[in-house]
Amino acid sequence: MSKTKLNVAVVGATGAVGEQIIGLLEKRDFPIDKLKLLSSARSAGTRVTFKGQEITVEEAGPDSFEGIDIALFSAGGDVSKELAPHAVRHGAVAIDNTNAFRMDPNTPLVVPEVNADQIDEHQGIIANPNCSTIQMVAALKPLYDRYGISRIIVSTYQAVSGAGSRAIDELHRQTGEVLNGNAANPDILPVGSLPVKHQIAFNAIPQIDKFQDNGYTLEEMKMVRETKKILNDESVLVTATCVRIPVVYGHSESVYVELKEDYNLDEVRSLLDNAPGVTVVDDPANQVYPLATDAAGKNDVFVGRLRRDLTNERGLNLWIVSDNLLKGAAWNAVQIAEVIAANKSK
Question: What pLDDT was estimated at residue 346?
Fold first, then answer.
């Protein structure tokens, strides 16, 4: 880790991802001189303990970034669109965890295990990909490099924490309501443009984010577009179905990938075993495979259920699981910050 100490701001410090970012900065002993915690006016005044010291959360504004070297944003796309340019104006590098800048051609979209070389090409803002995209491309990159990929078909099983703390509260409340023989009263999910809400307890909701004109949700289209951008390959065909399930932490994905070359399953397992940030958990004979409950609280991407497709000799099926708040958000952002810090110390 760099010895050069930096001034760091966390925007959205009291949110679920912001809290994880702060915890990681402390756990990783990130080289911080001054830590500034920022939020909406509603949360301003909250006190957060960092390395034994209490820090008062301030309301975020255009002039909050004077003297800041790195600003980590996780307070929603509208906030990022408004304030990230001000952070850059003050000389900070903004690492944004929202959808605000991901598809901007001048903004690198980075998963450090996949395309860390893009970090140096930033023009002030670096985008964190969508949580579902991050874990998928981290697992598929070694296969892409070795065999090439022609097609990806992914179905996700996503935790409610991806929709925020209110969605977690709703799952807990509805579970109690149903178990007590009462009707579940949906109020939060699915998050979309319509007022219609559905029960999440003991259910699966095949909608994450708003539906687009093509019949896919925005979450699904994020996976399509972001995968192509991160791999820097528009020829890769991607289709996604994203589903919200009653799990608190940890997104799971069933991924079918068509490789461009024939493959050996043992070699695939070895490639994944040696991939940075990837852990293979694949012993189906003993019912050992990645589980959301095991991935929760861990930084890695877990891969299992590796098996050859029965209808396509170049088809491969995988089961990919990761903590959506860590590798899917906070940890990926802190990894990017660590690369920036290391570069500043050179």
Answer: 76
